[in-house]
Fold:
Amino acid sequence: MNREKKKIELSTTIIIAGILAVVGYICGTQSSKIEALLAPTIGLKGDYNKLDLSSVENTYRKLTEKFDGKLDKNKLIEGASKGLVEAAGDDYTTYLNKEESEDFSKNLNGDVGAGIGVELGSRKNLPTVIRTLKNNSAIKAGIMAGDIVTKVNDEDVTKLKVGEISQKIRGEEGTTVKITVLRGDKEKEFSVVRAKIDNPSVELNIKGDVAILNVARFDENTGNLANKYAEEIKAKNINKVILDLRNNGGGYVSAARSLASLWIDRNSVIVTEKQGDKVVGQERASGNNILKDKKTVVLINGNTASASEIVAGALKDYAKATIVGEKSFGKGSVQEPIQINDDALLKVTVAKWYTPKGKNINKEGIHPEKEIKLAEDDINNSRDPQLDYALDTLK
Structure:
């Protein structure tokens, strides 16, 4: 009896193992078809039929047969991935390799490595210090806004692009870089120790009875910093606020929600995300609207984009602020970063976003209620008519 039972158990085990092997083979070889069948029932979208890459394989085969030189397979694969993503035809859907992915993450969070803490720009075709960041090496050494950078480590940089000069200034933490500047008609030299840049996403300046909140980007710390400064504004009984979003290229939507919530009533829609006509998400105000009764002006320009446009659009729709400056960039879509292929990053457009009144600003931008241009002559002479108008409005 026991022997018969063991035989039955063994036979059953063999049959089950056989069935599992067949099922495993089917799942492995027909996974795309299975996904295509199951996708609609579990809420996924997309074409799950495998892409026929035989023509790519044929191109690769001919390339290896004929190419006079060495081929780097990893670079070929990376190039193919980039080309595939670019062919989607969306400016914001991109493939970033490992290095590009790391740079993207660092820039998003203001981590530019070791430097001296200056923002450079081109003024009268000369590399000029636009501003010095608080609590950083440059300002401690005596470098000032308006200084024209002429040399880095005795190398003439006046004909280089701003980005190239920045690369020369940056270096290993703790090392020294020699900066030569022209201030008026006098040349000055500074030996500045490179250090990790303290570059907060939000800064508060008090000018008379007006609080100026400058938000440079939307990172993981933006919400907490903005809330801290809002509490400070409230504690000082300041009732006039300028929110400066000029040159803010965006960042996390959640950070935009936190900032907008300082003005907007609890549970009010700040932004709606749609795929086609289908609503796939909404960000609502948290209700911590410390600045709701403050007279507010928002400054925007052509480099105000994405998450910063979400904030400007929401404050405009709810009549919480007057929008001043120039038409914003016009990026009304949402990207999801997906880690793939050994630390590469696929940044893919997953939805379009709409202001509380249902407007998508893609390519159209947000139009200021008071348009004021910032001319090149203003920049070259350190004038800011947009900020001046905002201050006059709040008098």
Summary: DSSP finds twelve helices and 19 strands in the chain. The radius of gyration is 28 Å. Confidence is low (pLDDT under 50) at residues 1-8, 25-42. The CA atoms of residues 107 and 217 lie 9 Å apart.
